[in-house]
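#structure-requests
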Amino acid sequence: MPSQSALSPAGPQAGRIISLWWMMFYVTGAVFLIVMAFLMAALVRRRRPYGGAAADVPDVRPEPSGERRMSHVVLTGVALTVVILFVFLVRSYVTGRALDSLHEQDHLTVKVVGHQWWWEVSYDNATAAYTVTTANEIHIPVGRPVLFKLSSTDVIHSFWVPNLHGKTDLVPGHENVTWLKADREGVYRGQCAEFCGHQHAHMAFTVVVEPYEKFKAWYDAQLAAAQEPSTESQKQGRQVFLSSPCVMCHTVRGTDAGSRVGPDLTHVASRGTLAAGTLENTRGHLAGWVVDSQQIKPGNRMPPNNLEPADLQALLDYLQSLK
C-alpha cells in the first residue's frame, strides 16, 4: 500500500514541515496543560457551596499583596504568549525559506496538469521525441531534485504528497512551481487537497521513488510506442478500440488514436491504479470502468460503452498488453 502520512517524511521539505509541526504541537500542548492546571486550581479554591445565594457570600476584598501577585501572573502569561508567538513566527519564516531553497541545476522537470478528476503528467525535455506523457502516476529518482510545473484546465486543484512536501495550488491560466526531493525509496500517495467538484475525493495519484537505474528503465519504456498485438484477440481488441468512441478522447502512440481529452493509454497496463487512484489496475476493474465508469466514479467525463461480450474481452486483452 502506498504511504500517505505527513508524520513519516521521506524528503527534506517534508522533514522541515514536520519538525515545525512537532514544535508547535509540544509547545501548544504544554500551554494547554498549564492553562487547565490553573483553571482547576481556581475552581478548587473559589468553589461556591451548592445552593448558596449571592447574599450569603461574604464581601471579601483581596488584599493588595494578592492583587499584585495576580497582576504579575497575568503579565507573565501575556509576556510568555508574545514570546511563544514570536518564536512561532521566526520558525515558520525560516522553514518557509528553507522549503524554497531547493534550486539546483541538475534537476528533473515534470509538468502536472489538473483535470476534473485526474492528473496529466509529462516529463519536460528539450527534445520533443524524449518527452514522456502519462497519467496519475509519477516516477522520480531517489535523491534527485524535481521541479514541478503545475497548472489546471478547469478549476483550482491542489497538489499534495504528504510524505514529500506541502500543498501547492494548480490555478487555471497560471503556472505555479514547487520543488520536491525524495530521500527514501517507496510508493507515496498524493491527493488533490482543494475541493474541486463531485469526485474531489477520488482524485489521487502515486509517486514512485526508485533508484536512478530503475527510473531510467521506466522512462525508456515509456518513450516507446505501444507494442504491436501478439495474439489474434489483441489484434481484434485494437480494432475495437480504434472503431469505438475511445479514440475520441485517448491517445495510444503508434496508432491512429491521438486525442488528448482523457489520459494517454499507451502504457496503461504499467500503471498501478485506474481512474486516478480509485481502482487497482486489474482486469475486472478495467472491465467495469470501460463498460460504465459512471457507476464507479459518477460525474467523470467518460461515457458508458455498450460493447458485445466478445469485443469487450478482446479490448481488455489489448489494453492489458499496453505495458
